[in-house]
Amino acid sequence: MRQLLQISVTSFKMAFIELKANKLRTFLSLLGITIGIFCIVAVSTVLDSLEASIRTNVASLGSDVIYLSKWPWTDEGGEYKWWQYMNRPVLKVKDLKALESKAQTLRYSTLLYDKNNVTAKQNQYSVEGITCYAATPNFEKMQNFEIGMGRYFQPQELNGGNNMVVLGYDVKRELFPAGNPIGKTVSFMGRNFTVIGTMKKCGDNIAGFNFDRGLIISFFAAAGIEDVNSPNAGITLMAKAKPGFSSDDLSTESEGILRAEHKIEPGTKNDFSINKLSQITEQLNQVFGMINIVGKIIAIFSLLVGGFGIANIMFVTVKERTKIIGLKKAIGAKRIAILIEFLMEAVALCLFGGCIGIILVFMLALVFTYGMDFKVSLSLENIIYGISISTIIGIIAGFVPAYSASKMDPVVAIRSN
Question: Could you tell me the residue ranges of all domains in the chain?
Fold first, then answer.
C-alpha cells in the first residue's frame, strides 16, 4: 500500500512536469476532456437548479391549488383545439359562488381577471406593458407575493370595488423612484386609484404571474371599467383544497359542481378546463430530460476526443521515456509498478482537465446567480460526478500506453534511440 502511494505521488509529479514541459501539446490534448466535463457537469448543475427552483415555486404556490378557465394550459389529449376553447364561456362570479357554497373539499377560492399591456401614470412618470390583476378576496392566500410597504386589501374593499391598488416592485420603482407611494394616486385603465400598498420583489412564478411588473385591484372595480364577461376576458377561477384533501379531490368535486351550474348533460365534454401545476412540471421534466440527453451526447463526443488526446500524449510520453523505463526494469522495477505509474499519470492529466471544466461551471453558476438573477448551485454531488468521470476516462485512455510500457524488454528499451 505504501509503495502504491509512492508510485501515485511520483506519477502525479511527472504529470505536472509533463504539463510544464509541453504546455501547448498538453493543452490541446486536455481541451476535449475539459469541454466534455464542462458539458456534463454544467447540464446537470443547471437542470438540478431548475428542478429545485420549480419545486420551491410549486411548494410556495401549493400543489393543492387548481386553476379553472376556458383555456387549458396543455392539450387535452392530442391537438390543442384553440378554436373550440375560444367558443367556451368565461367563468363568472356565479361560478365562484356555486363553488364556495357547495364544495366540501374547498378551503379558499378567488376569481381573477387579468389584463395585459396596461399603462400606468403618476404625474410625469409612466410605466408601460404591465399586467393588471383584478381579484376577489383570498387571492393573496394562493399566491406567493409579500407586501413590502403599506397593506393588502380588506375583504370588504375588494367586494365593494373600491378604487385602490397594490403596486408591484418594478411598477412602484418606476412610478415613485424617490418617494413613498402610499396614499398617492395612480391612473390606469381610464380611472384613478389610490395606492394602499406595494409588493416585495418576487419574480415570475410557475403559474405565469409576474407581480413585479403588475398591480392588483378589486375584481369588481375592474368590472366597472371592463367587460369581464366578454369572450376574450382573461378569467381564472382559482381554488385551494382543505387540509387532508388533494387537488384531485377538489378537481373532481369542482368539475361536478360546474357541470351542474353550466347545465352540461352527461356524456358531453366540459366547457371549462381544470389546470394544475403538475401539468407544467410534467412537461418541464420532459424538456429537461431531452436537454440532459443532448448535453450528455455532446459531452460523450467531447470525452471521446479528449480520451484519444490523452492516449496520444501518453504514447508520446512512453516513447520519450523508453530508456528510463528500461533502466527501471533493469534495476528490479516490476511490470505492475510501471503500469500504475503511467496509468496514474494519465488519470492526473484527465483530473487536471476535469478540474478546469468544473471551475468553468462554477464561474457559469456565479454569472447566472449574480448576473441573471437565477440561483444556480454547483453541488458536491456534481463535483464528485465530474471527478469520477475524469478518473474513468484517464484509466481507459491511459491503460494501453501504460500496458505497452510495462511489457517493454529492458535491454531493448535501454538501447533505443
Answer: 2-57+282-415, 89-271
